[in-house]
Amino acid sequence: MTIAAKPTTSSASTGRGIFSIVGIACIVGFAIDILIAALPMNPGALEWRVGFLRQLSDRSVVPMIGLGFLMFACMDARALRKQLGYVGMAAGVICLMLGVLAIRDGVTLQNETLKTINGRAAQVQQQIQEAQSKPPAGAKITPQDVEQAMKQIEERSQTMQSNAKGNILKTGANSVGNLVVVGLALIGLGRYGVRPPRN
Prior knowledge:
It is a single chain. This protein is mostly helical. The protein has one domain. Helix content is 83%, strand content 0%. It has 5 helices and no strands. The longest helix has 56 residues, at 78-133.
């Protein structure tokens, strides 16, 4: 007695259907998430761009996985797989360009932050000098008090500058790293999608 083997075509098409659903859900979910993160839109503001690029880079793996699932689901549909491949390459190039923008904006934000810290420190030092030259009634301000206050302001300013540099560098490196890796992966997926099938 022989047992007939069940055809694997239906399970393969079911698997591809599941991959299609998950792929579409990843891409649509990412689009909605990023649209909400972008509101209220203000691309002219440096802080908005830095925050948006950080959120975009944090979520950038999701559309890459979605595109990979869709490409797998369309493995037999050559024309659709090729279109998805071109979409993947275009998205990859955009990610790489956004990585360059993230570097530029990170450097600009760091310079502005350090400038602000220096400006505030200079303001406080000026107020101390004014208080020394025109002390409030009944207050005794010695040169040692002024020197100690100036030293504390300088130390705090240096600490704040060091912390700002570290935080901005860490955030920028994370954003750029994610965008570059995902960009290269999307380009690789795209190239795989547009290449002709092997005989």
